[in-house]
Amino acid sequence: MLAETICSAVSAAGLGIAALTAYRKRFLAATRIAAYSLVPVGLVMTGVVQWLSGIVFKPTVWAGFGVLGLAWLLFMTTRAIERRGLGAGKEPAKEPKAAKGRPARDAVAPGASAPSLGGGAPARSAPAAAPADDFSDIEAILKKHGI
């Protein structure tokens, strides 16, 4: 009952502001204000306000939100502990199961995702005179512009 009265008062105040805005010849703004001010009355008429006030003022609903929050907190705590590797009940890695009559095989390239430390083919090196050539080009450009 109180929520419906507050929504009605807000709508009436909004319509009053819309009327003053229309009096000042700002019809587009007045129409927008009137539209916003009719929303609370529409919510009251559809029953949304009564439904929301029923949820807000019931202690069992708040207790339910508390239980959901506690469950979320426990879930996130266990995930954080698991990611840091602090879990006491770490399970060993499982061996891959072999198909009938076939032995289990290892991965095709177990180190494929590991970063290379230069053990592969040597990289192509630029000639030693290349950096000097680069600087001479820069010097020529600077001289051209008078710097």
What report would you give on this structure?
By secondary structure, the protein is mostly helical. It contains 5 helices and no strands. The N and C termini lie far apart (81 Å).
C-alpha-based Rg, rounded: 36 Å
Beta strand %: under 5%
**In terms of per-residue confidence, which ranges show pLDDT below 50 for 5 or more consecutive residues?**
none
Broad shape:
flat
Helicity level:
55-70%
Major sheet details: none
Summing up helix and strand content along with how strands pair, one would put the structural category as mainly alpha
Q: Order of SSEs, N→C?
A: HHHHH
Quick structural overview:
The protein is mainly alpha-helical and 147 residues long. 63% of the residues lie in helices and 0% in strands.
Task: Give the helix/strand layout.
Elements: H1 2-23, H2 27-46, H3 48-56, H4 59-84, H5 130-144
Helix pairs in contact: 1-2
Q: What key attributes describe this structure?
A:
mainly alpha; flat; 147 residues; single chain; 63% helix
